[in-house]
Write a structure and sequence with these properties.
Number of helices: 7
Protein name: UDP-N-acetylenolpyruvoylglucosamine reductase
Structural class: alpha+beta
Number of strands: 20
GO molecular function: FAD binding; UDP-N-acetylmuramate dehydrogenase activity
CATH class of the largest domain: Alpha Beta
Bound molecules: flavin-adenine dinucleotide
Family: Belongs to the MurB family.
Distance between the termini: 30 Å
Strand order of the largest sheet: 6-7-12-10-11
CATH topology of the largest domain: Uridine Diphospho-n-acetylenolpyruvylglucosamine Reductase, domain 3
Number of domains: 3
Function: Cell wall formation.
Low-confidence stretches: none
Shape: globular
Radius of gyration: 21 Å
Largest sheet: 5 strands, antiparallel
Mean pLDDT: 95
Pathway: Cell wall biogenesis; peptidoglycan biosynthesis
Strand content: 25-35%
Length: 347
């Protein structure tokens, strides 16, 4: 089933709370209806709106995948294959799995958005990325008008990237399949203070080993202590990707900034925390009104004029930060959220 609307207000449908209205919106409740949708002109898929920067006027058709349901495809003593429809809320899914004692996505708790959007930027947090548990993705291929199943390899995942970013507007993700584990063999807790916090929770529950539910609660507590809730202070999470630089450039910077946090990727590449770079550029809590970096986490841009600020306001603060960090460190930050143009194209 589908529902079609005109002059559709999207201001409450993006976590940055940008003022936005679309020509046409099509809400899809059943993927079987997809072949019958033939949007005239450009179209754009909007899920939970937590990783997009929308224009005031969107002269395009917005497609809202809202297919619901999850079911176990197969199960044995060790693992479970779970298929989840695109419209399921991601955090609710994580909660469900952690409560069931299924390991794999507990580190990805409290990431806003819908399950179908998770493969697009290969969501990641606290040492885990979606690709670690993803088996395959069901899609509707608009180019060839057919339903397909893409394997994890075909999704071409890398850091905050996938084929869905490479080939925008080609695929609509209808469902994802995850491989989850029933034992804690693959628990990932060596990220910052996560292990200690999870162990404290396990001990309080009378256990000496960490379960998925402990990681889940620890991640929620850590995130709530430093990230603003979009429902209270609109934002779209990390605004910039953590830059990956050459070892040579890193050697020069670490001489100048000996306390600079860094994460070696391999012998040739080092990842730096973008939030630290922004903070060192003197922009923690700064920016240009109404778009300011968060006082506890400079990587998050917050909107202090919900429902009236526009993309233009975002661009001003974004460019100010990029120039400041470039001047201080010689590093060009790259935006993480998707910038949607008025004609529905995006980058
Ligand atoms: C407070 C906060 C914290 C965050 N923390 C993290 C984090 O820790 N790690 C992380 O990786 N991200 C994080 N994010 C970013 C965001 O939540 C994720 O990228 C999320 O997966 C986006 O889901 P969404 O449903 O909101 O997608 P949307 O923002 O609606 O869409 C994002 C992109 O995916 C495309 N898309 C969405 N659904 C489909 C579909 N079914 N088929 C094809 N294309 C589709 C859209 O066209 C768009 O290009 C955070 C955001 C916020 C606001």
């Amino acid at each position: 089933m589908i529902q079609t609307y005109h002059n559709y207000d999207l201001s409450a449908m993006n976590t940055m709370a940008l003022n936005s209205c679309a020509d046409t919106a099509i809400v899809v409740h059943d993927e079987a209806a997809l072949p019958s949708i033939r949007p005239t002109g450009r179209w754009f898929v909007l899920a939970g709106g937590s990783n997009v920067l929308l224009p005031s006027v969107l002269n395009a058709t917005v497609i809202l995948p809202r297919m619901l349901g999850k079911h176990i495809l197969s199960e044995n003593d060790d693992e479970i294959l779970l298929e989840v429809k695109a419209g399921e809320n991601w955090h609710d899914l994580v909660s469900h799995c952690a409560l069931q004692g299924w390991y794999g996505i507990e580190n990805l708790a409290l990431i806003p958005g819908l399950a179908g959007a998770a493969p697009v930027q290969n969501i990641g947090a606290y040492g885990v990325q979606l690709e670690d548990v993803l088996v395959c993705v069901k899609v509707y291929d608009w180019e060839n008008s057919q339903f397909l199943t893409l394997s994890r390899e075909e999704c071409q995942f890398s850091y905050r990237h996938s084929i869905f970013k490479e080939q925008p507007n080609r695929y609509l993700i209808t469902a994802i399949t995850l491989r989850l584990h029933k034992t804690a063999t693959r628990i990932q807790s060596n990220y910052g203070d996560l292990h200690n916090q999870a162990l404290t929770l396990a001990t309080a529950a009378g256990r000496d080993d960490i379960h998925a539910i402990d990681i889940y609660h620890a991640v929620i507590a850590i995130r709530q202590s430093k990230l603003p809730d979009p429902a209270i202070l609109p934002n779209c999470g990390s605004f910039f990707q953590n830059p990956i630089i050459s070892h040579g450039q890193f050697q020069q910077l670490i001489c100048q900034y000996p306390t600079m946090p860094h994460y070696p990727i391999n012998d040739a590449l080092v990842k730096l925390p973008a939030g630290w770079l922004i903070e060192q550029a003197g922009l923690k809590g700064g920016g240009i009104t109404p778009i300011l970096t968060h006082t506890k986490q400079a990587l998050v841009l917050t909107n202090h004029a919900p429902q009236s600020a526009t993309q233009h306001d975002i661009a001003i603060t974004q460019n100010h930060i990029i120039v400041s960090v470039q001047q201080k460190f010689g590093i060009t930050l790259v935006r993480e959220p998707v910038w949607v143009n008025a004609d529905g194209s995006y980058q």
